Structures are given as C-alpha cells and as structure tokens.
C-alpha cells in the first residue's frame, strides 16, 4: 500500500513538472525596443520597427509648414521621404526639449519616423508580464498607451502601433 | 525625353528652398541698392507682399535683399522678399522626390510639394499657388 502511495506521489510530481514545462512553453514573448523620449520610456514592438538611424548633418529633419504640430517634418532616408512625428505631442505629453539624437522608422500601412533621445534596451517580454495601464484613457487622449511593463525599476509604456495607424493622426 | 524644370534656389542658413521658375515673373536682387520700397509698399497695401521666413515659419533669417515676383496670370501677382538667390538649376522631373501623400493631406495649404537632392543638400520645392488664389 505504502509502495503504491510512493509511486502515486512520483507520478504526481512528474505530471506537475510536465504541466509547468507546458506552461513555460505556452508563454508568448514579444520583442520590444525601449526608447527614452525626454525621460518618458516607451516600448515599440520590433515587428513594426524597420530601422534606427542616428540624426546627423546627413540625416536631419526638414520642417514642413502648415501641418499640425505633431508633424515635425520629413527625413530623407536613401531617397525616400518619410514623415517625422512627435510621439509626445500625439500622447499629449509636454516636451521640454528636443535634443533628439536618433530616429526610429516604423512601417505599418506606410512608413513614419519619430525621433527619440536614446535606446534603453532591446528586450524580450513575456506577454503575461505586460499589464493594462490604469486610467489609460486619462493618460493619453486616444489611448495609444494602454499597456505597460516594468524594466529595471522603470515603467515602460507600450505603444499600440496598430491603433496609432488607424487614428485620425495618421489618416 | 525626360521633362526638365528650372528651379530658383534660395539659401536660408544652409536650408535650401526651390521655386519653380515657371511661377516667377521677375526677380529683383539687391533691393537696397535699387530702392524698391515703393513697390513693396504698394504690394503691402494690397496684402500681396510676403516674407519667405514668415511663410516657412523660420524665425531666424538672413538679411532680405531680393524680391521674387510670382506670376498669377490675372494681375494678382504677389511679391516675396527673400535672402540672396543662390543659383538657378535645371532638374529632371523624375529626380524629384514627391512629398508623401500623408503629409500632402495634412498640409493646409500645400506649400512644400517635393524635394530635390542637389549633391548632399535637400532642396524643398515650394509653390505659391495657394497664396495667389487666396486673394
């Protein structure tokens, strides 16, 4: 009888172990580029990111007059003219300075670019660790920032690229 | 045969602006020497005088010393004051990088319609069609 119990315990332990393994395999990870824009930290899903370019004398933003404030201008990347947008202005966050050093090119329905200060990290994030932002609608008018995760003690807001592209800003 | 257009290039602190010469009736350089103040006054009264810096939203501008008279074909010409004219270049239409549709839709009025890469510099091509039709 006792022997049977021991075997049952072993079987249970194996099954539990297997379940844990399956759970591990079932977790989905997404890769994000984490960037700093004026001490605001944002994550861009790598799926939409085409490239990151250093702003320089060769790659610079040309302003376009008579456009909404969130359109900073255009940039010429290998003879392709790409609109440059201010994410802070779209997210209704005050931008105190514009010491941008890099620019990210995003490709969804068409290409857009947005400048930022620095790359913080490139990170694989388990989607189970991504949480909904409380009061997301209050934080961002159109709620393009509805999810967040923690990275090195900092809260990183995830940019909903699909929502951004279907918004009035990009129509 | 590829169609070519002539572009008048203005250098604003190394930001280059190009105006299609077919829109231009006349260029007057060295306005201080030629004392064109009466002409400017006349167009100011008619509200058909514009400074290029204001049109482009550029705060810091080099000294204005030229006038570009933009042809309206119906007597409603406008005058644009500009810094020195750099050069006139002839460009192939196919070499023009057209402004993305998204920007074109958001730009009101359409002012910059394309770009031309002249060596390392990107020239913004502008049109005054809106400002002529406005009056």
3D structure, described in words:
The complex is a heterodimer of chains A (171) and B (135). With 171 residues, chain A is an alpha+beta fold. Helices cover 22% and strands 42% of the residues of chain A. The model of chain A has no long low-confidence stretch (mean pLDDT 87). Chain B is α+β, with helices and mostly antiparallel strands. Chain B has one domain. In chain B, the strands form 2 sheets. Chain B has a 6-stranded mixed beta sheet, with no helix packed on it. In chain B, strands 3-5-6-4 form a 4-stranded mixed beta sheet. At the A-B interface, strand 5 and strand 6 of A face strand 8, helix 4 and strand 9 of B.
What is the N-to-C succession of helices and strands of chain A? HEEEEEEHEEEEHEEH
Secondary structure: number of strands of chain B: 10
Distance between the termini of chain B: 37 Å
Helix content of chain B: 10-25%
How does the overall form of chain B come out from the CA principal axes?
Answer: globular
Strand percentage of chain A: 35-45%
CATH architect. name of chain A: Beta Barrel
CATH topology of chain A: OB fold (Dihydrolipoamide Acetyltransferase, E2P)
The rounded Rg of chain B comes to 15 Å
Give the topology.
The complex is a heterodimer of chains A (171) and B (135).
Chain A lengths: L1 H25 L2 E9 L2 E6 L3 E6 L6 E2 L8 E7 L2 E6 L1 H4 L11 E6 L3 E6 L1 E9 L4 E2 L3 H4 L5 E7 L2 E6 L1 H5 L6
Parallel strand pairs in A: 2-12
Antiparallel strand pairs in A: 1-2, 1-9, 3-7, 4-5, 5-6, 7-8, 10-11, 11-12
Chain B lengths: L3 E9 L2 E6 L3 E6 L1 H4 L2 H9 L3 E3 H5 L9 E5 L7 E5 L2 E8 L4 E2 L2 H6 L5 E7 L2 E6 L2 H6 L1
